[in-house]
Each structure stands twice: as structure tokens, then as C-alpha cells.
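Regression check, zinc ion case 506:
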Amino acid sequence: MFWADKVASDIINSKKYKPYWVDDMKTPSGFSHVGSLMGPVIHSMIYRSLKDSGQKANYTFVINDFDPADDLLPEIRGSFESELGKPLKLAKSPDPKFKSMADLFGSDFVNAIKNLGVEAEILSSWELYHKGKFDEVIRQALDGAEKIQDIYQRVSGSRKKEAGWLPFQVICEKCGKLGTTKVFAWDGEKVSYKCEPSLVTWAKGCGHEGKISPFGGTGKLPWKVDWAAHWKVIGVTVEGAGKDHASAGGSYDIAMTICKEIFNYDPPFKLPYEFVLIGGKKMSSSKGLGLKAHDLVSILPPSVGRYLFARNGIKSQTNFDPEGTNAIPVLFDDYQKAADAYFEDGDKDLARSFELSQVGKIEKPPKVRFSVLAQWVQMPDMEEEIKKEGLGTWAEYAKVWVDRFASEEDKFTIQQELPSEVKKLSSIQRHLLEKILKELGETWTGEDLQTRIYELGKELGLGGKETFAAIYISLLGKDHGPKAAWLILSLDKKFVVQRFSDASKA
Ligand SMILES: [Zn+2]
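Current build output:
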């Protein structure tokens, strides 16, 4: 059974998680890495699978825009330091088209997930707090502060926080920062807080002390408590967590326990998942490190982007390293195989992975392999062929792959001048070029010309490699390239004849 269907059937069979409410969340603290699309996509697949089983289900995605800004984009360091510590919803956006950092980064991420067909209703944590939806859980958390401390200690084995610790942070009424405040008293109506100059290393508090009601958006719960609180407030019954949070005694376990013991709400179905590491270790030294969620739209069609995460599933960590490799062409090949399984009644899991990867109506992908297309887009005058084969959309992605990711091996350029490499041609190879050019006047199909060139080489005692190398060296200045006949036919006939003639005499 396909992994998403297995998860959905486990959820249904355990009979504990109705109504089915799938949720995931993200803090919009910067432009997200492409790997962060994994969560929304796998939740989308599970959501679809629940619905395909005839169940009613909801899917929400929370933007954690109440979280404090704790880091700055490298390009604005030095000029936006005053924004650090403020809630992201109040931190000034470096792009003036957006009101806040949360709006800028949040909408950037939402666009990226919508592109991948993630159908979740988007919720703003800031709004939920400000509408008073969290008031009840805030009271429960403040009243249960001691018990929450015990849970941290029991579940994670961490040492007990200092006496009087309270699980809440207030937006400082003087400087507007959230990340710097510490609440030290709770009287059942108001909390007392101090804005500490050195509570955190990344922001400096102003020293202000105040007393304020914790309700209605004046402040928020700390992360692990906040996570559990969201489940209860929204009514979540299914929310996964990446491996980094889902280790035994980690934040996922802590939030689950708080959910149950403090908020008296059944914790959601437990779904730890492994990541697709984009680029793996190599990434740190390559351009790929900067691969952002919003870049995916120009690199892969939406359905292939979903498929990248679908084929991996949730059980094993894999690397996807597009830089200077053929990882992207292989992904397209795999996607085509999954499509074949779907349309030709092949392997059921593969077919299902294709089906759940669709965005909008189900479409048959092209038959031509991506690696071949990547050669076509580097040849002149191939537009007609590309159009005829219905490859227009994929051709755009092939161009991007050639420009941004392909190794030098996979790139070629028709040399406008006779390449100096022709000096390496043997006399037999030169003779071969003369023979080929004499036959170019006829009308050829790619297949026939390819066979004919091979025969001509054979007649002269050349192997296939030497035969085609003569053509590549003359046209590209290197000894390998795309299928030679198609390359020749994509070029102006006069140009090829002249080139072969020049190369044979050089
Ligand atoms: Zn302050």
C-alpha cells in the first residue's frame, strides 16, 4: 500500500481521530529552504488519501506569525537590528511592499505551497490569539505552570526551570519586543513581566516592567506549549513532525503530553517523518544551499515537485542533490515511470504516487525523456519539434536545468568558428566527414541518417565512438554530445556542409 494510504488507513482504523483534521505549521522567519516544502506536501497527500477513502477531512496550515524575529536575512543585517525580538507580525519588512516580515515571508511560503497544490486553509496564529481563541488555553497554561515544568522534566529529562517560571511572553508595552520579556507573576487576571536586557543573545530588552492581561493577543505561549495549544484551539487530530522534532523526548513528545495533561485534549495522531535533504552535505559548498522554496516553481513543474516528496515517503531520509548531477533528469524519468504505471495499470504504489502528485486535473506527461529534451533545447531550430511533441512546458524546465544545474559534460554549444580541437581528428575521421557531407543533400529522418553515419564510419574501419566524435569535434569542439544525426538536422544545412568541409581540410 502506498505510504500515504497506509497512514490514512492507520488513522481511520484507530478510530480515535475523528473528525479528521490535518494540520501543519511554519514560522515565517526568512525565505524558507526548499526542503521545508516536505511537511505541507506530505500532509496534503494524507489529507487527499483520507478523502479518497470517503472520509470528511479538513486541512489547515498555520503561519506562526506571532513568533519573534530571531534572525535577519544576511542582506539586512546591520540595518534591521531594532526589529529583532519583535513578533514577526510587527517586525518591519525589508521589502516595503509588505507590512511585516511575517507578511513577506509568510506569503512567499504560502505561494510556494499553493504552487504544489497544497490545499490547506491558511491560518494566522497572530489572528487566532487576537480573536481571543487562545484565552482559555493561556489560562490553563498559566495555572498549570508547575505541571508543565514537570512534563518538560519527565518527558525530555531536562533540568527543572527556576522556581516561578511561567509559560508566557508578553509584547513589551514600551519597546514592542516579545522575545526579550519574562513573565514572573500571575494573579489569575494579569501577568507581571520584565523586558530583560540579556534574556536572549539575539535581542536586547529595554528593562521595562509592567503588568497586563495575558488575553486577547498581548502575548503568546512559548513554542512547545503553543504547539499543543494550537491543536486544541483548532481541533487538530493529525499533525506530523519532522525527524528533528520527533525524536524520543523531543518537542513533539512534550507538546503531546502538554496537550493531554494541561489542555485535556487528545493529542493528534503521531506521525514522525524523515526529510528529503536537498543537496545533502555537499550543499554547504555549492550554489544549491541557496535553493529556496520559492525557487522550486522555476525548477520543476508542480506535479514533479510533489512527486519529489511523494516518492521518498516518510520512512527514510534521502538526498536530492541537483547541483552538477543528473538528479533532476532522473526525477523526471521516475515521474514518467510512475505515470506509465498509472495509465497502463502497472505497479499500484507507483501509480498512486503519480495520482497523489497531481495538481489540478490528471495529465499525461510527455514521452520524450528529460535528458533528451535537455539536448534538444541546446540545439538550434528545434522549436518546431519541441512544439510538435507537446514539450513546451517541460522544455522551459530543461533550459533551467541546463543553465543552473547541468555539469559541463551535459552542456554543449554549436561553435560558430571552426574549433581548434579539429586538429585532433585522424585522417580517417576527416575522410568520413567528407563522405557525410556529400550525402547531406538528400532528405533524411533522424533515424536513417544516424544509421547511415554509423555505416559510413564502419566502411572506413571506424568504431561508433570515433565516428560520432568526428562530428562532435567539428561542431561542438568536444568529443561527445547529443545524438549526432538529430544535431546535424537541427542545423542549417549549408553551415554543416561548410563546417565538415573545413574540418576535413584543417
Ligand atoms: Zn521592552
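Comparison notes: Residues 327-343 form the longest helix (17 residues). The pocket of zinc ion is lined by residues 172, 174-175, 177, 195, 205-206, 208 (CB under 6 Å). No diff flagged against the previous build.
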